[in-house]
Amino acid sequence: MKKLVVLSGAGMSVESGGSTFRGAGGLWGKYPIEQVATPEGYADNPELVINFYNDMRRQLFTSEPNKGHKLVAELEKEFNVTVVTQNIDDLHERAGSSKVIHLHGELTKVCSSYSPYDQRYVKELSPEEYEVKIGDLASDGSQYRPYIVWYGEAVPKIEEAIQYTEQADIFLIIGTSMNVYPAAGLLNYVSADIPVYLIDPNEVSVNSNRHQIHVIRKVASEGMAELTKLLTGRTDV
Ligand code: APR
């Protein structure tokens, strides 16, 4: 089976009620990044940060995967699909994608404040008990914090994402402004002779002149329907 690698961003989840980070109504227009998405912001006011992600988690449990997520998952019938997502939601998984690499962490999990990447202390939260409070401690004695990669922190899964990207036969970029590295830099690891598709309703400036990029200027669900027809010949999407 041909290997298809998908790089997704916040736009993937807009039709599920998610918000983007940049552009009109984006999250970073409402909350200062320094306060809620940096280790300094967490150290300065852990309760504010923990509650910010409690609110996002509460919303996540009320949202559903959209048709775009589902069509990405359905491509697994014809391709060996790896989803590399910048999103912290679990909508790709809930839509049925079986291999999802979260570059920026996972909203449904919490981790140790002392060693955020130590899997021994990573805990999955359930919809029944999704809220973290000050005083909820990991077994290393530290406060449980959101399992999110904040600005300035390492992106431990980028190496794995690069390996899959280098082996891709098809590369799909969907719902990301390609502003944030190292995620946006994955395009540089795509071999020059394979097709690259980009689904986004807006113009996305991709700073790589190495690729002929097939742009589908549509929202995720419509763009994925068009791409599915292109790649599989299916007419029922
Ligand atoms: N369908 C598809 N794409 C959409 C839709 C939609 N319905 N609506 C908006 N978009 C596109 C926008 O045009 C934009 O190109 O989604 C993209 C969202 O870009 P950003 O808001 O920059 O989000 P993203 O690229 O995921 O940000 C990357 O930045 O702050 C960090 O950690 C955060 O993971 C995030 C990273």
Can you offer a commentary on this structure?
The chain has 237 residues and is of the alpha/beta class. The chain has two domains: 1-16 and 65-104 and 155-237, 3-Layer(aba) Sandwich (Rossmann fold); 18-62 and 107-148, SIR2/SIRT2 'Small Domain', CATH 3.30.1600.10. Helix content is 25%, strand content 18%. The protein contains seven helices and nine strands. The strands form two sheets. The chain has a six-stranded parallel sheet, sandwiched between helices. The chain has a three-stranded antiparallel sheet with strand order 5-4-6, covered by helices on one side. The longest helix is centred in the first third of the chain and has 15 residues, at 46-60. It is globular and about 55 Å long. The two termini are 21 Å apart. The relative contact order is 0.19. The model has no long low-confidence stretch (mean pLDDT 95). It binds adenosine-5-diphosphoribose.
SSE diagram, text form:
Elements: E1 3-8, H1 33-36, H2 39-44, H3 46-60, H4 67-74, E2 80-85, H5 91-95, E3 100-102, E4 105-112, E5 123-124, E6 144-148, H6 158-166, E7 170-174, E8 196-199, E9 213-216, H7 220-232
Parallel strand pairs: 1-2, 1-7, 2-3, 7-8, 8-9
Antiparallel strand pairs: 4-5, 4-6
Helix pairs in contact: 4-7
Bound molecules: adenosine-5-diphosphoribose.
How would you briefly describe this protein structure?
This protein is of the alpha/beta class.
Question: How much of the residues is beta strand, in percent?
Answer: 15-25%
Q: What is the radius of gyration? A: 18 Å
- Which class of the largest domain in CATH terms? Alpha Beta
Present as ligands are: adenosine-5-diphosphoribose
CATH fold description of the largest domain = Rossmann fold
Mean pLDDT: 95
Report the helical percentage: 25-40%
Uncertain ranges: none
Tell me about the biggest sheet?
6 strands, parallel
What is the number of domains? Answer: 2
> Which CATH architecture of the largest domain?
3-Layer(aba) Sandwich
Number of helices: 7
Full CATH superfamily name of the largest domain: TPP-binding domain
- Strand order across the biggest sheet? 3-2-1-7-8-9
Shape label = globular
Structural class by secondary-structure content: alpha/beta
N/C terminus separation = 21 Å
What is the strand tally? 9
The sequence of SSEs as H and E is: EHHHHEHEEEEHEEEH
